[in-house]
């Protein structure tokens, strides 16, 4: 799978608010599926489907413990997403700065000492 495909999967996974909330929870530390399901009005199988999407995107991993599969955040993929976003943020900021400089250069200087004359 190439870098672009990995980013596509990550952005698709991040597009869902439930999955973003799961990632926010995992940022505090690993958790079981049942622990992740608690704050949501969803069944455990529904949460498991969200976890599969996150795992396929490389955003989480699931360990094999005795009777549970604790989930943990995989920050490296989020860092890939952040680097991609940062590159485009820099591009847009540079464009806006050039636009601002151009607009500043085209402004007519204020007329000093002249009063507005009305008829």
Automatic annotation (TrEMBL):
Coiled-coil residue spans: none
Domain annotation HTH arsR-type: ranges: 1-93
Pfam families per record: HTH_20
Entries under Gene3D superfamilies matching the protein: Winged helix-like DNA-binding domain superfamily/Winged helix DNA-binding domain
Domain of life: Bacteria
InterPro entries: ArsR-like_HTH, HTH_ArsR_DNA-bd_dom, WH-like_DNA-bd_sf, WH_DNA-bd_sf
MF term (GO), any: DNA-binding transcription factor activity
NCBIfam families assigned: HTH_metalloreg
Protein name stated in the entry: Transcriptional regulator
């Amino acid at each position: 799978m190439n870098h672009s495909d990995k980013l596509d999967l990550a952005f698709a996974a991040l597009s869902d608010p439930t999955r973003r909330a799961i990632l926010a929870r995992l940022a505090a530390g690993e958790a079981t599926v049942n622990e992740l399901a608690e704050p949501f009005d969803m069944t455990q199988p529904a949460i498991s489907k969200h976890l599969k999407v996150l795992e396929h995107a490389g955003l989480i991993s699931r360990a094999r413990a005795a009777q549970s599969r604790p989930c943990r955040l995989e920050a490296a993929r989020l860092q890939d997403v952040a680097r991609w976003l940062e590159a485009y943020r820099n591009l847009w900021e540079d464009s806006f700065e050039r636009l601002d400089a151009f607009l500043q250069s085209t402004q007519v200087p204020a007329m000093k000492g002249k009063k507005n004359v009305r008829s």
